[in-house]
Amino acid sequence: MATKINFTKEHEEKLDALAIKALKENTVIQTSLGQYLNITELMHTTSINQLNNIRTNLLKQIQKKEEGDEWVETDNSILDKMKETKELVNLIIGWKRKNTEIAENKAKKAKLEETLKQLKESTKTPEDRIKELEAKLAELEEF
Q1: What global pTM score does this model have?
Q2: How much of the chain is in helix, strand and coil states, percent to nearest 5?
């Protein structure tokens, strides 16, 4: 069986808070190709692979700032913003994976229900089918 995505209610609440903050602040994230993406584009048009690349790039930038020269003062507000953005991107990845899992499960359920319906239909006796058809005809004769 496939792995289950562990995106909890707490994760979703944190995503909601960070997404609203990003929306209000008009936060944009630059991709490695120079493209700027806002929160809506990150959530709805960016693939999981693209988001993973963005998260990796943010992680590298954070590490570079943290490992910088000890004689140069690091602007902590910029570093904090980068960490928050990385967390937001990571939560969006989890949210997208969870939504994909839900959609796949719905498709599997529909397929199983159809298989079950066909199996039930194939096991009916001719008498059962005759009774069903007669009942349908009786309904239609009322009109």
Answers
A1: 0.78
A2: 75, 5, 25
